[in-house]
Amino acid sequence: MILRVARHTNNLQIIENFYINILGFERLGGFQNHNNYDGVFIGKPELDWHFEFTQSLKKANHVFDEDDIIVLYPKTILEYDSIIKKVKDNNIAIIPAINPYWDENGQMFQDPDGYRIVISPLKAQN
Questions:
Q1: Does the pLDDT of residue 126 top 60, yes or no?
Q2: Residue 50, CA distances (Å) to 7, 19, 29, 34 in order
Q3: Taking the model in full, what pTM does it have?
Q4: Which of 11, 37, 93, 111 suits 80 as a labelling partner, its CA being 20 to 30 A distant?
Q5: Among candidates 42, 39, 38, which has minimal Cα distance to 22?
Q6: Is residue 83 a contact partner of residue 37, using CB atoms and an 8 Å limit?
Q7: pLDDT higher for 125 or 120?
Q8: CA geometry: angle 83, 42, 63, nearest 5 deg
Q9: Is the pLDDT of residue 18 over 60?
Q10: How far is CA 112 from the centre of its chain?
Q11: Do the beta carbons of residue 4 and residue 50 sit within 8 Å?
Q12: Rg (CA), the chain
């Protein structure tokens, strides 16, 4: 099975930059003006999943709560440290999680659309 996580945004270029340059994913493809949508596929070629972000004239209306998060587990502590450094170097605030597990086992911050992301060392994955 292959997984695609699709989300509409009002800031396609900013989101693409964030997921590639901060989180270390790659641009796998994209499209322009497909049924009035522009989009980008972001992930890593060796993975069976990727993100799809789209933008259109219809504005995104993000509705989520503080426990709706994306959790990413870098495979090495070096990769974990590199991502956290990029987050801090770009003045992206580390924020407290509602669920204390995530504060004990990672770092939480928000993407440009306000969605919460946790970067957690692989050893914390259970």
A1: no
A2: 11, 11, 11, 19
A3: 0.91
A4: 11
A5: 42
A6: no
A7: 120
A8: 85
A9: yes
A10: 9
A11: yes
A12: 15
Q: How far apart are CA 42 and CA 50, in angstroms?
A: 6
Q: At 51, which amino acid appears?
A: F
Tokens of 70: 């994306």
Which residue is it, tokens 């060796």? 46
> How many other CB atoms sit within 10 Å of the CB of residue 68?
10
Q: How far apart are CA 120 and CA 108, in angstroms?
A: 9
Confidence band (pLDDT; 50, 70, 90) for 125? low
Residue 81, pLDDT > 70, answer yes
Provide the 3-class DSSP secondary structure of residue 114.
coil
List the alpha helices (DSSP H) in 1-126.
Answer: 12-17, 77-89, 100-104
- Give the chain's domains with CATH numbers: 3-55 (3.10.180.10), 69-124 (3.10.180.10)
